[in-house]
Design goal:
The chain has about 325 residues and is an all-alpha fold. The protein is about 75% helix and about 0% strand. It contains six helices and no strands. The protein has helices spanning about 15-55, 70-100, 115-145, 160-195, 205-280, 290-325. α2 packs parallel to α3 (about 115-145). The chain is rod-shaped.
């Protein structure tokens, strides 16, 4: 009975102290882990706050630092960076394209694949590129046509919506404003080339187009007036030519009459000379020749009368000649 093991019972208390010690260590370790997690969470929140502030300030190249983060917090930081990369890539692409367009450059259409709202941005940029290319094509067509003198050509403004259509419509209005006075000028000059001096420019134009209208109309009016004066002068010349022709005929007739009268005078003078000589030869014959002398005298009187008549004709003819010359 003396070997009863009851005294060993108190030894069972030693494992209880060890369990308490182990439990306290685990709690302390847990507290340390919780404190580390809280510190890591606080650091992650600070890092995310820094990234958010940078994004708000437009600093899109900033990324969260992974550092010593582990587990979920590491995955969270990496996810934030991936999200920023996915967001910033189309934004940078949009900025690049808009900057090129603002400088007058038209980039190639976007061919990368995007999803959701990013794809809407892509489609909008591609539509803008298509509109710009279309406007350049229509504008170049107008420039080429204008350079070739085809002023009736217009751009297809109805193919463009909103302000783009209004812009091309304004270009069409510009071409129309230039073409209208040129068409009017060509119409009047074409009429002048066809010997029609009645055509005028009647539309109202401003500025230098108005000056062009006034110059064209004044030139045609002056030409019409000059030709009217030439026509009137031609009529006067024709009338004067007729008068000159009549006067020349009268002059010729007067000259013929003068020649005839002179011949009569010459003949009378010759007869007078002959009779005078005969009278002188017969003066000594006496009375027998008196009758001959009397007849000679009568003939002399007749010759003198004819000479006087011839002189009157010469006088009349000379007067007509003076009138013609006047």
């Amino acid at each position: 009975m003396a070997n009863v093991t009851e005294p060993q019972a108190p030894k069972a208390k030693a494992p209880a102290k060890s369990a308490r010690a182990n439990g306290a260590g685990k709690v302390k370790e847990l507290e340390q882990r919780l404190a580390s997690m809280e510190a890591e969470q606080a650091d992650t929140l600070n890092e995310l706050g820094r990234i958010i502030k940078a994004v708000k300030n437009g600093q899109l190249n900033e990324r969260a630092e992974i550092g010593d983060a582990t587990g979920v917090l590491k995955v969270l930081r990496e996810g934030v960076n991936e999200m920023l990369d996915a967001l910033i890539a189309p934004i940078n692409m949009t900025v690049e394209y808009v900057d090129a367009i603002s400088k007058g450059e038209i980039p190639e259409r976007i061919t990368e694949d995007y999803q959701g709202d990013f794809n809407e941005i892509k489609n909008s940029l591609n539509a803008c590129i298509d509109v710009m290319n279309g406007l350049l094509k229509e504008t170049d067509k107008l420039v080429q046509a204008t350079a070739a003198g085809k002023l009736e050509t217009r751009g297809d403004a109805d193919s463009f919506a909103g302000g783009w259509g209004k812009l091309l419509g304004s270009v069409n209005d510009l071409v129309e404003a230039v073409a209208a006075p040129i068409d009017d000028t060509a119409r009047v000059m074409r009429a002048v080339a066809q010997k029609d001096l009645t055509s005028r420019i009647t539309k109202e134009y401003q500025g230098q187009f108005g000056d062009l209208k006034n110059y064209i109309n004044a030139a045609v009016e002056n030409m019409d007036e000059a030709l009217s004066q030439v026509n009137e002068a031609s009529d006067q010349v024709a009338s004067a030519s007729g008068q000159i022709s009549t006067g020349s005929q009268a002059l010729a007739e007067g000259a013929n009459e003068q020649a005839s009268a002179l011949e009569e005078v010459s003949s009378s003078l010759e007869q007078m000379a002959a009779m005078t000589k005969q009278n002188a030869d017969n003066a000594g014959q006496g009375e027998s020749l008196a009758n001959g002398a009397t007849d000679g005298a009568k003939k002399g009187v007749e010759a003198m009368n004819r000479m006087s008549s011839a002189m009157d004709k010469i006088k009349t003819s000379s007067g007509q000649t003076a009138k013609i010359i006047k």
